[in-house]
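Changelog-adjacent note: as of this version, every example in the card shows the full chain rather than a window. The one below runs 474 residues end to end.
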Amino acid sequence: MSKEARELVVIGGGPGGYPAAFYAADLGMKVTVIDKELNPGGVCLFKGCIPSKALLHVAKLLNESKEAAEWGVTFGETKVDLDKLRAYKEGVVKKLTGGLGMLSKQRNVEFIQGTAEFIDSHNLKVTRKNGKTEEMRFEKAIIATGSLPTKVPGLSIDSPRVVDSTGALELPFLPKNMLVIGGGYIGLEMGSVYHAIGSEVSVVEMTSHLLPSADRDLVQPLEKRLRKQFKDIKLKTKVAAVEDVGDTVKVTFEDEKGKKTEEHFELVLVSIGRRPNAKGFGIENTGVKVNDRGWIETDNQRRTHESHIWAIGDVAGEPMLAHKATYEGKVAIQAIQGKRSIYDPAAIPAVVFTDPEIAWAGITELEAKDQGIAVKVAKFPWSASGRATTLDRSDGLTKLITHPETEQILGIGICGPGAGELIAEGTLAIEMGATVEDLSLTIHPHPTLSETVMESAEAYYGHSPHFFQPKKKK
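Full-length structure tokens:
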């Protein structure tokens, strides 16, 4: 039994946990990280963000190879080798997580592969992968246990043909047809991958829109494209029953009028969101409190009700995004070091890596309406962008949400190829308190998609050189 108290223990080695641990080590602290995986990385690197983006890269290539025929370039018949595709994806994961393992050793971070359970507010029971257990005392701790896929209530089924996002990323086989339950970003991303490699994809969503939390103007181009690619998109429809019948899964749908229909699918992906992972590791043995929605309660430094325990990432509240977790980790370590710190971002960018990509930061037009906040909106359609036209992707949009009097940028939304890269400029503009004029007067390179940010600002004033908007009659 180990009696020595660790200076800082981080429970969870994901995009919140490992950056926090590395930052603390860089500042001279002795750090221990406990995680189930062999190396740091967490769900994001092992089973989420990274492997899915590797597959989406392949999907984009497959789609463009088909679209190239319209540009006068015809390729031969494409063939997908699932074994090689899996190997490519796993190679990306291994390279990145292996690199983090090396960085952990270089920083002298103690990395323990195993699980941790609170005995009380200062002691952990650590179970290593080999089954050996030990009691570990700590001075300070950060909980970074992440989240888990949400299950459909009443539709739990033990079948290899019904998978969550982790199972779908394994590419178990190439199904003739596939159903995605949930019209959120994970479902649409994975549906796009399976469509590209040859499956007929259908999506069912209970609400009236795909990506319910996203701006409708941004979702419209994506939905239009997906309706051409996917076999079916069922909105205002719920799944009433799921039954494995051997070679297929029988799914019973129920629409808003109560009408029921049945269809068969070779693979069903359940993707209705994620829930915080705040149970199963003895948190009830401490003074740490969990709210009704399952998130650990923290202050603006991410300190819990136990003054020496912090919580960051998905387990500490929305938005459940990797980069938000990383930022929180930095805030927590600064607080642990006694430095001035506060979690108060003006904007946290969100990206949906479909094709086209959708990205936004700050307040959306719908949020402003719901909160009774007066805003002025400016839009620049990519049909007026020279660079978008050269890419044959004029279906995009750049949108600014601004204060009607001060002209300060309150929000920005982008739909189109590379939106995830472009949104960083908007995020910086919001954080720096930039105005529409600031964006308008910032010279952007031509011809680029980044110009759409500048031209959306010019459109605000009604003098974009490439987009004419007739003035409204008073």
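Structural remarks: The longest strand covers residues 110-120.
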